[in-house]
Specification:
By secondary structure, the protein is α/β, with parallel strands linked by helices. Helices cover 45% and strands 21% of the residues.
C-alpha cells in the first residue's frame, strides 16, 4: 500500500469506529468536527471499496450490519491495544514528579542544602519546590499552587483528611555574626541585647516570635527607657539571615534553619536558653500518597533526626 492509501485506510477506520460508537452520522460528525454529508460520503466510499454494506441507514441514526459489527469490533480491539502500548511507552519515559510547598526560610536554609542526598537516593524523581508565605494554620487561598505535600510553619493543622505530623518544634536563639559580637558585644545581659541593632522579620498575620515577644519572655517587657539603635525589617527570613551574616545586627534564629550556620560558626548564639512554643514546621500530605511521596517523608524524617542529635 502507498502512504496515501495507508492514511486513507486509517482515517476511514477511525471514522467507522466513531460512527459505530455514536450510532449516527450526525453525532460522529459533531465529535470529529466534520459535516454530516462528509461523514456519510466517506462511509459510502469505504463500503464501495469493501463491496459490502457496513451500516443500515434509518430515519434516526444508523445500525451496524453483521459485516459492520465485525469490522467495528476488530477496529476497537486494535485501537485499545495501540492505546495500551502507547501508555506503557509514555509511563516508561515519564519521570515521577514530587511537588513540595514550603516557605522561603525552610527551603533556602534547611531543605535545599540537603536535597542532593534525596536526589541521589531517588534519581528518577524530579522535585519541584513551591515557596509561599502562607502559614500552616492559615487556609491557603485559590492562588496557592497545588502540591503533593507541604512543610509549613504554624500551629498543628486541623485538617482531618490530611495526614500531618510535626517535623520541628519552634526553638529560637538571638544570633549575630562573630564580627558584630566583637564590635558591639559582649551581650551578657538582656538589656545589652536590647541596646543592639535588632533585625526584624515582618509579614501579614505573623504568628512567629518577634523581638517584643522575646523580651517579654525573658522578663524585659519594655525597652522604652533604653537608648535604641535604628532597626531593620525584612519580608522573608533568608534576607534577615543574610543581614546577620553581614554583621548588620542581631536576629532571632530559628532552629533548625540556623543549624548549618551555627555548625560552621558563621553566626553565634548570644543567649544560652532557647525559647520554645507549640508552633513548628508541620508536614502535611495534600495529594494522595504515592510511593515517592512516602519515600520523601521517610527521608526527611531521617534528616530531621540528624538535626535533633546536634
Amino acid at each position: 500500500m502507498t502512504p496515501n492509501q495507508v492514511e486513507y485506510l486509517l482515517r476511514s477506520l477511525r471514522l467507522l469506529e466513531t460512527v459505530g460508537r455514536c450510532g449516527s452520522f450526525s453525532a460522529a460528525a459533531l465529535e470529529l468536527g466534520m459535516s454530516q454529508p462528509a461523514v456519510s460520503q466517506q462511509i459510502a466510499q469505504l463500503e464501495k471499496i469493501l463491496g459490502v454494506t457496513l451500516f443500515e441507514r434509518r430515519h434516526r441514526g444508523v445500525s451496524s450490519t453483521d459485516n459492520g459489527k465485525a469490522l467495528y469490533t476488530t477496529v476497537t480491539e486494535v485501537l485499545s491495544k495501540i492505546h495500551t502500548v502507547m501508555d506503557k511507552i509514555y509511563e516508561q519515559n515519564t519521570r515521577e514528579k514530587l511537588t513540595v510547598l514550603t516557605d522561603y526560610g525552610f527551603a533556602a536554609n534547611w531543605l535545599l542544602p540537603r536535597l542532593s542526598d534525596f536526589e541521589e537516593q531517588c534519581p528518577d524523581v524530579d522535585i519541584s519546590l513551591l515557596t509561599t508565605q502562607v502559614q500552616q494554620d492559615r487556609k491557603p487561598d485559590q492562588h496557592t499552587p497545588p502540591a503533593d505535600l507541604s512543610i509549613l510553619f504554624g500551629e498543628k493543622p486541623q485538617v482531618p483528611e490530611q495526614e500531618s505530623f510535626c517535623l520541628f518544634s519552634e526553638e529560637i536563639y538571638p544570633v549575630c555574626s562573630p564580627n558584630y559580637l566583637e564590635q558591639a558585644g559582649p551581650f551578657t545581659k538582656h538589656v545589652d541585647i536590647a541596646r543592639g541593632r535588632l533585625l526584624h522579620l515582618s509579614g501579614p498575620d505573623r504568628k512567629w516570635f518577634t523581638w517584643e515577644d522575646w523580651f517579654k519572655a525573658v522578663s524585659l517587657p519594655t525597652r522604652s527607657s533604653i537608648p535604641l539603635k535604628n532597626s531593620l525589617s525584612f519580608g522573608n527570613y533568608p534576607l534577615l539571615l543574610q543581614a546577620v551574616l553581614q554583621g548588620q545586627g542581631i536576629g532571632l534564629g530559628w532552629r533548625p534553619l540556623i543549624d548549618d550556620l551555627l555548625g560552621t560558626k558563621q553566626i553565634v548564639p548570644i543567649y544560652a536558653e532557647p525559647l520554645r512554643s507549640s508552633r513548628g514546621y508541620f508536614v502535611s500530605v495534600i495529594q494522595k500518597k504515592k510511593e515517592h511521596t512516602a519515600f520523601f517523608i521517610e527521608w526527611i524524617i531521617r534528616e530531621a533526626q540528624k538535626n535533633a542529635a546536634i
